Task: structure prediction
Amino acid sequence: MENNVLNRYVEELATRVNGEVEESFGVLILKVKAASVTETLKEAKNFPDIPCDFLHDLCGVDTTEHFEVVYQLSSLHGPQRLRVKAMVDRENPVIDSVTPIWEGANFLEREAYDMFGIIFKGHPNLKRIYLWDDFEGYPMRKDYVTEPIEVRDVVRKRIEGE
Result:
């Protein structure tokens, strides 16, 4: 029953935000444009009776045509699960931060920024989390070119204060 109710809420939400709904391995997937991700996630968090109020994970995906930011949601009140995929333009990879909705998204958004170069507008501290500040490029992008062995063998000296 809960899945039918969740399915109805997700279908209604998809209609409002011009999204599309799929199902994969028993998990509903709502695909939306980046511009409507905040509205979509706030609404999903506040579904009556069966809120998807827990953010398990957030990650970036490079599909070569565009980026996706994938939000894995579930409920603290039941078994429902929802995956929201926000399509982000490859040439201008900017999307709203969801840290005002879930503070736990902070490091997850920083990881997506560090690996894919996706900019989270409104993030309280958007900077690299794994790589050093002057690292060039974003290593999880499909168009990232690795350095030749001769360049990789050069040891980088640590600068005092880093």
Q: What stands out?
A: The chain has a mean pLDDT of 92. Helices lie at 2-17, 37-45, 105-116, 149-152. Strands lie at 20-24, 27-33, 54-62, 67-74, 81-88, 94-96, 119-121.
